[in-house]
Every structure is written in structure tokens, then in C-alpha cells.
């Protein structure tokens, strides 16, 4: 067992100094500033990692497309030169609408080199969500393929006056003077590019939130965010020389950029990318064959794997695996315990948001894991629990107090704005603190526990009930695979707790089971908190990043408009 990078959490947290800890990053040559792409690619390509695999893409048929750090340096330089040749200006926005293909990585990092702002879109978006984001983000360039272009984008062009070019990755010739061949352009330009001087505060990335609580917001991040990508890679994901890392996140979501692209590269390890979507046996095969050391995935995936009648470590050689990490939603204690026995390694939940740009709270490899907890703050980040009373924010210091999860806003990757929504952005801050919109508790040992999103909290008979607690308890019943809990208005008690439940295979949805579950819930949670209504469903509505859309369940329950559904996963 390798010794973790973070050996003594308390000491590191106490002594942490961002500038000292990031001194190993090189900065642009001749003191010309800090650029994410230089730290992620060029500085390695100019050193001993030149011929090391940066990205190994596993295609549908299991063949590979391998990119070394040296290859990536050249191809991203070419892409930056393409942008220059097209007359794009620094600060303009380059969008991608692609699956996990090499061009996605080249586009992201090449845009950063050029100092364009990169914004990924989910490839499964239909025309309207694509339009909304491209128009709100004033996209200048879109990199996509012919099929997506014809099916989803071409008819929008009249409504997208800022969009200058569409670069198609799968055609050898231009379609017209706007829709151009990516490869043809790449061939015309040099593979050398000098990154222009870049300020730490220059905008780098635009990420739309998942839209779990409403209309997605466009969070802006700057080049300085690379400090967080580097430190979280080192201390949370525990990247060590020679490591093979696999992040399963969709490239259309912030995790797909921060941890699917930037963090592993900045830390000089090899990333595995699987072209395919979730497929349990394929995934286990990849973990085994590619000797993956660190695996970063999401609770929905873990819950799906858990539902299968299979102990992976008995069927597959997972001896290379050192850590499994999870983000995006609360990871229930059951899943942590199951995962440890199924994989034989720690399952580390961690918390962050589009707005924070990188992991902020984590179960660290060298700390005791508390199943069901998000863990402790990243060194360099101050996290608190607070009450908000009018204009005042009061930090709560007594253990177990429930309140708003707030972060001191001075860490490098805090977002610098919501695109075109200044007021909404300002509302997220009170004094030095950023309000995450989530509710949490902190225990006596300094571990943070997720309670729920502020918007999802249920007020019933004078109690504040966090859906996560109720859902976790329901999932401890052997028949329950997944649960989502909402508050349903009820005049006498404010709201009543209603649960939507997906059953495990082999359990029939009938009145007996409903009564049994209600009885069980009352016993373990007490009658004030336990659901009064249970409805069995085949599946729960989720976002494309795997989050349960409780607001949609609630809207349907109340017969209200369903709201923005652009990120709803269709199953
Ligand atoms: P929107 O802001 O548009 O409603 P969203 O908040 O789901 O969407 P993201 O930024 O992708 O968009 O998700 C961040 C949120 O996901 C967090 O604020 C939190 O509610 C939830 N989350 C992420 N990781 C965890 C975790 N480990 N435990 C509990 N919740 C988590
Ligand atoms: Mg959010």
C-alpha cells in the first residue's frame, strides 16, 4: 500500500499556504503568468513526461487512441493556431458538443492555450438547451460532429448571430463557409504555439450548473482555478507518479472538465477515457485491463452496481485499485460499506459544486472514513455552518448544529460570476462567505454531513426534515433500491413527507409492502420524520449528471409547471 500524499491532515490544514503548496507549478515561461493548459500539458511535454500517456481513450471495440503529453502539446497548439487563423479573439467562447473523443480534449486545452473561454455541452442535449447555452454564452465557435450539427444545430443558426464557425470533426471538407472541417484546418497550421501572457484572473471556463433546483446558471472560472485542480488531485485523489486514473463523469458536466481533463494532467498521471456510457461488465473489464489505480465516479453508478448480484473483486482482478471516489450527490452509508467490501478499497465521498470549480470537502485517504459523511474541508479552504438572519450570517459553532453550508470565498477556484446574472451572483455572498445553497451539519470531530439542498428542505409539524436522512433510512430496508423524498403541502402540518421508492429486483410493489415500509420508517425515524405517503415508481427522474430531480417530482405531485428540463436524463 502506497503512503498517501496527505499524511497528516490536521497539520497540513493548519499550515496550509496556497502559494507555497502550488510553487511546484511552473507558471508561463519568462514570468508571463499562469495558464491552465501550460500547467496541464506543456510543462510536462517539455520535461520527462513527454512520452508518457496523458490520455488513453478506449473505443467502443476496445481499441485504443493514445495521446502522450508530447502529442497533446502539439495538437492543442494546432487548435490554438486554428482559432487564431479563424480570427477569433482572446476571451471569446469556444463550445464543444461532443462525446468522449480526442477532439474534445484538444478543443478544451487548445482553447485555454489561446485564452478563449471553453464551455462544454452535454452531447445528449437537444436543440433548445443547446440554443439557450450558446446564445447566453455568446458562443463564437462550436466544435461538434456532422450528425449533431445537422440534427440539432443547423436550424438554430439564424438565432445565433455570435456563432462564427462550426468545426466538424468527422468531415474532410468544409460544408460551407461557416461549417468547416476540423481536420483540414488542423493540417494547415503549425504545431508550435506560444501561449500569450495570461493573468491568473483571466476567464478560462464557463460551466452551466446541473439545473437540479431550477434554470441552469453559467458559472465563470479563471485560470487561477488550476491551483485547486492541482491540490485536490494531489491530496484528495492522491495522484502519485505512474498512476492510472479513470473519471467516469460526462464531459458535458463540470466534473468532466475539472477531473476528466485538467486535474489528472496537471498532476502528470494517465487518464483512461471510455467512449461508452455506463455498462457494468465493461466498466469492471476496463478497471481490470487498464490496471486503474484511482476511480472517480458518481453515486448513481455505485447504486446501479450495488443492485447487481455480483461481488466485483471476486470476478475481476482489481488488485491495482487503490481508491474509489464519488461526487455529485450524497453517497449513502450503505453504499460506502458495500463498496469497501465489494472492491476491497476505501470509497471516498466528496462534495463540491460547479461554483467551487473543484473538490471542497472530502474523505481523505489517510483519514478515517465516516460512511455517509462528506468528510473534512480541503486544506486551504475554510468551511462553516451558518444561520442566515436577514442581512446577517452567524456561524454556528456547536457540534451537530444544522445550517447553511458556507465557504470562505478566498480559495482560487471560486466562481467569478454567473454569466449575465450579476444580481444572482451577488446574492450568493455575505461578507467573506459564499453560501452554497446546501444545508449541512458538522460533527464534533470536524466531519461534515449533508442534510439537503436548501430548496428541498421539508417543513413538517414544526420540524425541518432533510430529504437525505429520510432517503438513507429508507434505503436500509432490504426491498429499497432508491428513494426520493419531497414535502407535499398539507394544511394541518405544513408539509407531509412523501417518498418515491424504486424497489430492488424481486420485490413486488403492493399495499402490504407499502404498509411495511411506512411502519419500518416510523420505527427507525420516528413518526414526525417518517414518510406518511409512499409511492412506488420504476425509476426516479435524474439530471444528466446523475442527480435526483426532487423539484420535478414535487411539481408533478402538485400539478405545477415542470420547469426547465433541459438536463433531465431520459431513460
Ligand atoms: P443547480 O445549481 O442548477 O440547481 P446543481 O446544484 O445540481 O444544479 P452542480 O453544481 O452540478 O449543480 O451540483 C452541485 C450540488 O450537488 C451540490 O450543491 C450538492 O447539492 C450536490 N452534491 C455534490 N456532491 C455531493 C455530495 N458528495 N454529497 C451531497 N451532495 C452533493
Ligand atoms: Mg447548485
From TrEMBL:
<dbReference type="GO" id="GO:0005524">
    <property type="term" value="F:ATP binding"/>
</dbReference>
<feature type="domain" description="AMP-dependent synthetase/ligase">
    <location>
        <begin position="59"/>
        <end position="419"/>
    </location>
</feature>
<keyword id="KW-0007">Acetylation</keyword>
<dbReference type="InterPro" id="IPR042099">
    <property type="entry name" value="ANL_N_sf"/>
</dbReference>
<dbReference type="Pfam" id="PF00501">
    <property type="entry name" value="AMP-binding"/>
</dbReference>
<dbReference type="InterPro" id="IPR020845">
    <property type="entry name" value="AMP-binding_CS"/>
</dbReference>
<protein>
    <recommendedName>
        <fullName>acetate--CoA ligase</fullName>
        <ecNumber>6.2.1.1</ecNumber>
    </recommendedName>
</protein>
<dbReference type="GO" id="GO:0003987">
    <property type="term" value="F:acetate-CoA ligase activity"/>
</dbReference>
<dbReference type="Pfam" id="PF13193">
    <property type="entry name" value="AMP-binding_C"/>
</dbReference>
<feature type="domain" description="AMP-binding enzyme C-terminal">
    <location>
        <begin position="469"/>
        <end position="547"/>
    </location>
</feature>
<dbReference type="GO" id="GO:0006085">
    <property type="term" value="P:acetyl-CoA biosynthetic process"/>
</dbReference>
<keyword id="KW-0067">ATP-binding</keyword>
<dbReference type="GO" id="GO:0005829">
    <property type="term" value="C:cytosol"/>
</dbReference>
<dbReference type="InterPro" id="IPR000873">
    <property type="entry name" value="AMP-dep_synth/lig_dom"/>
</dbReference>
<dbReference type="InterPro" id="IPR045851">
    <property type="entry name" value="AMP-bd_C_sf"/>
</dbReference>
<keyword id="KW-0436">Ligase</keyword>
<keyword id="KW-0547">Nucleotide-binding</keyword>
<dbReference type="InterPro" id="IPR025110">
    <property type="entry name" value="AMP-bd_C"/>
</dbReference>
